[in-house]
Write a structure and sequence with these properties.
The protein is elongated and about 60 Å long. It is built from 4 helices and 17 strands. By secondary structure, the protein is α+β, with helices and mostly antiparallel strands. It has helices at 2-15, 27-40, 62-67, 72-90; strands spanning 43-44, 50-51, 55-60, 92-93, 99-104, 113-118, 130-132, 138-140, 146-149, 156-157, 168-173, 176-181, 188-190, 193-194, 198-200, 206-209, 212-217. It has a 6-stranded antiparallel sheet with strand order 8-7-17-16-13-14, with no helix packed on it. It has a 5-stranded mixed sheet with strand order 10-9-11-12-15, with no helix packed on it. Strands 1-2-4 form a 3-stranded mixed sheet.
Length: 219
Amino acid sequence: MGLQSLERRLERMVEGVFRRSRGSIRPIELGRRLVREMDDNRTVDVKGRRMVPNDFEVMLSADDHASFNEIETALTTELAEAAREYAREEAYHFIGPVRVRLTVDNDLRTGRFGIVSQLKQAPGGVGAGSLVMPSGERVDLGEHVTTIGRLPECSITIEDGNVSREHARVNPGSGGYVIADLGSTNGTLVNGVRINGQQFLADSDIISFGSTHLRFEAS
């Protein structure tokens, strides 16, 4: 199901922004090669987890790269999201945030492309992690503390009357990410249960602040 899901995502893209591109390479071709890179380069760590590349450089001819100019940001974002979804469905793990970038290789002919992938750890060695907002927007968690609350100064501002001005924070650590409540009025819930102080986050945990729910993704 993983590859089929990825193909559906990219076919939707073909029906949208890709119609404006006249390149000889379709996004679905890039997506298929990208997941093949994940499959071909998976390894097993000491915990028995299947680790796959998370950093991808897509090399294109100058003409093909130019054809993607208008949609480059949308394309790389969609490829990264498709990689995350494929990893979840195949029970793969990343050691850092997923990154996809397009570069020019002047030795490539039009219609040809290559992908170089690597397992790349996030700065500080904290691994990968992100919070998915109700809108679908993804907030990457790096080596910095992420604050959540109503104040505009917070890393994530939530306009919800049930959320405190400074409600909670997510701290990076060697063992993963930890959610800590900052003495909020209504508390912080993880999977519907109010936390007592702080708690380690696991993949797909639902974190609730008032009536706002975010999903934590470890991949």
